[in-house]
Amino acid sequence: MTAVRSRPERLRALIEMEACAAGFDVVTIASPEAAPMAPGRLAHFLKEGRHGTMAWMEETAMRRAHPRALWPDVRSIIMLGMNYGPGHDPLAVLARRDRGAISVYAQNRDYHDVIKGRLKQIAGKVAARTGAQVKVFVDTAPVMEKPLAAGSGLGWQGKHTNLVSREFGSWLFLGSIFTTAELAADRPEKDHCGSCRACLDICPTEAFPAPYQLDARRCISYLTIEHKGPIPQEFRERMGNRIYGCDDCLAVCPWNKFAREASEAKLKAREELKAPPLSELLELDDAAFRAFFSGSPVKRIGRDRFLRNVLIAAGNSGEKSLVPACRRLAEDPAPLVRGAAIWALSRLMEPHAFEALRDLQQYETDTDVQGEWKHALGWMAGR
């Protein structure tokens, strides 16, 4: 385990020892004032509407802006990082158009489940040793983990807005323990991005209005995970075969050359999730979807939203063999699935064959799906 700065205090030594035993790779200490620029940046992000449909970000903005707004008694924040570096090139699957690309972080167990229990173990030891109060957070509460991690020296926020570490590149899960215990804070890490623009230039949807700024509405991770409705037309072709998340900006970071494969077994990729065949994913009913993604964060978006993503990938694949599966899904009970199936079929079928499907259109009652038919037929007419 790597400690950013070693300190002689017994409590600090206990925290580092327990963090190492729990499988964390790095631990630092932040003061509640470690991210003074974060509130202003958050306010600008929300004012520009860049959070899209994530209304919870606006609803919790006051508590998110400062740790003491979330918990007035906090005196120190223990920041912990767990390496989830892949043992393979996560971008290689993008060339395999008949396969689905799932973000590295979702290729095994849900990291919330992996990390939260371990944070509680460490927090319990801190409370027992000091009598201090503790609270643990793993990306499920209004805590700005990345600015706090940067302010504590764990890494720095790169131009893609994600945390970058000199030792682990862009592949760190973050967790935090808020405590009333007084701990000496570590120094912030410097920004080491320099003139590099690799993460900005590779983005398929141009989701970065400027370095260090993200417009979530254009981000494939947001579109495939958080966005609940039909994928906007302008982004569908750019999604390629990305069916859950997008690793492009993370994977291209030059600092990844110092990263290493995750040692935690639950964070290593399951073979069947590295590049699953679209043909198999298109056959998933709700029960099969839940079974296949048991324990995975993919399960949280539900079968319908997931199949929406898979159908977009099918439409981009050029694989005519996927037409029968897409045709069946054009009559799926879920409008979200039907609409995406219509789009996929319009990309995979010849105009005369697609025209023969218009019997389905006359029975369609959902407004969004009717819009898909109108757009698909118009696109076909212009080919």
Uncertain regions spanning at least 5 consecutive residues:
2-8
- Bulk shape: elongated
Which radius of gyration do the C-alpha atoms yield?
23 Å
Task: Provide the residue-averaged pLDDT.
Answer: 92
**Major β-sheet, in short?**
5 strands, mixed
Number of structural domains: 2
Task: Explain what you see.
By secondary structure, the chain is α/β, with parallel strands linked by helices. The chain folds into 2 domains: 269 residues, no CATH class; 107 residues, no CATH class. 42% of the residues lie in helices and 9% in strands. The strands form 3 sheets. The chain has a 5-stranded mixed β-sheet with strand order 1-2-3-8-5, with helices on both faces. The radius of gyration is 23 Å and the shape is elongated. 47% of the residues are buried.
Chain-wise SSE layout:
Elements: E1 2-3, H1 10-21, E2 26-30, H2 38-47, H3 55-59, H4 61-65, H5 67-70, E3 76-83, E4 101-102, H6 111-130, E5 134-137, H7 145-151, E6 156-157, E7 163-164, E8 172-179, H8 198-202, H9 220-226, H10 233-239, E9 242-244, H11 248-251, H12 271-274, H13 278-281, H14 286-292, H15 302-317, H16 323-329, H17 335-348, H18 351-355, H19 359-362, H20 367-381
Parallel strand pairs: 1-2, 4-9
Antiparallel strand pairs: 2-3, 3-8, 5-8, 6-7
Helix pairs in contact: 1-6, 15-17, 16-17, 17-20
